[in-house]
Amino acid sequence: METSIIIETVVKAVVILAVFSALAGFTTYIERKVLAYMQRRLGPSNVGPYGLLQLVADGIKLFTKEDFVPQNAARPVFMIAPIITAATAFIAMSAVPFFPEFEMFGYVIRPIISDINVGVLFVLGVASVGLYGPLLGGMSSANKWSLLGGARTAIQLLSYEVVSGLSLLAPLMLVGSLSLIDINNYQTGGFTSWLIWSQPLAFILFVIAGFAETNRTPFDLLEHEAEIVAGYATEYSGLRWGMFFIGEYANLFTVCFLVSLIFLGGFNDLWFIPGGLAIVLKVMFLIFFFLWTRASWPHIRPDQLMWLCWKILMPLAVINILITGFVMMF
Question: Taken in order 78, 79, 82, 84, is the CA torsion positive or negative?
Fold first, then answer.
């Protein structure tokens, strides 16, 4: 029995690693196509039909590009930093239930690696450890621009983790559990039972914090592509840069699944749409929303980012917790 559980867990981990690594690459294609459509450009169109083989070309370039370490860099830390970012992004997925249970060849499969009763806390905690990747990468690069980029990364991620944590307290008070499966089951009453209707402010705050924590426009100040240098990733190239990149997109999928599970009914059936398909559609819409925002909003300054976090979002999150507590009392 224990052997079968171990084998099942290993298979699930390999599947999640392979699927979301592939989705990270494919999302770059979708992103370029969506941005091109909204900005009246073509996007990838020359390599393969509809530019689909652009993904292969990018992969070949990524794996064959020279991977160098700066002369004065702290070599072990410099090499480990990208691994921290990618590893924490995938470890955080281990407590996320992606789909409802289903049966295959008479065997019941639960699409979650580890069903722990503090799933939300685990996901947020492991994801927050990911900030050590950019921070250590910037500090170890022997480059002042990388150091400044690493410091800016730590400030942004730490600040918005406060907002994301506080924004979830109110809906968790209603559910009475930290398990993502319990939160999903709380919304089994259909469309009207979604937590977004009883906690709209928490939903908005968590989504905004998600933009900041996944390095998405308008909060993409971690590796700011409009600058001459690339923040903490200035000295990185090849596969090590790609690991930062994969970790970023893996976190994007994790945030979208969390929003779907906590606020949008999770993988419960939606009218005639089965639960497995319903959550895929929700995540696809959220991914599109993130891309749409990138095409529509300009970058903001670091001081504006901090002002928004500490003077607007955090007070709103605290007020929402107080209001929820009073409503539950009376």
Answer: negative
- What are the tokens at 46? 């020359």
Q: Tell me: the pLDDT tens digits for 76-130?
A: 999 999 999 999 999 999 999 998 888 877 788 888 888 888 999 999 999 999 9
Query: What pLDDT is recorded for position 108?
Result: 81
Predicted confidence at residue 168, as pLDDT, reads: 96
The closest alpha carbon to 268, from 187, 153, 322, belongs to 187
User: What percentage of the chain carries pLDDT values higher than 70?
Assistant: 99
Region 25-37: mean pLDDT is: 92
How many CB atoms neighbour CB 143 within 10 A?
A: 19
Structure tokens at 226: 């409009």
Q: Supply the pTM of this predicted model.
A: 0.94
Whole-number Å distance between alpha carbons of 320 and 121: 19
Q: For residues 186 and 177, what is the distance between their CA atoms, to the nearest angstrom? A: 10
pLDDT category at 224 given cuts 50, 70, 90 is confident
Distance of CA 179 to the CA centre of its chain: 19
User: 44-81 burial, b if ≥16 CB within 10 A, otherwise e?
Assistant: beeeeeebeebbeebeeebeeeeeebbeebbeeebebb
The Cα–Cα gap between 93 and 257 comes to 9
Rg for the chain (alpha carbons), in Å? 20
| 129-to-132, 151, 262 alpha-carbon distances in Å | 6, 15, 22
**Cα–Cα dist 247/134, whole Å:** 11
* Domains of the chain, residue spans: 70-329
Smallest Cα–Cα separation from 221: which of 133, 144, 290, 134?
A: 134
* Residues 211, 73: Cα–Cα separation, whole Å: 31
Sign of CA dihedral 25, 29, 35, 39: positive
Q: Which amino acid is at 99?
A: F
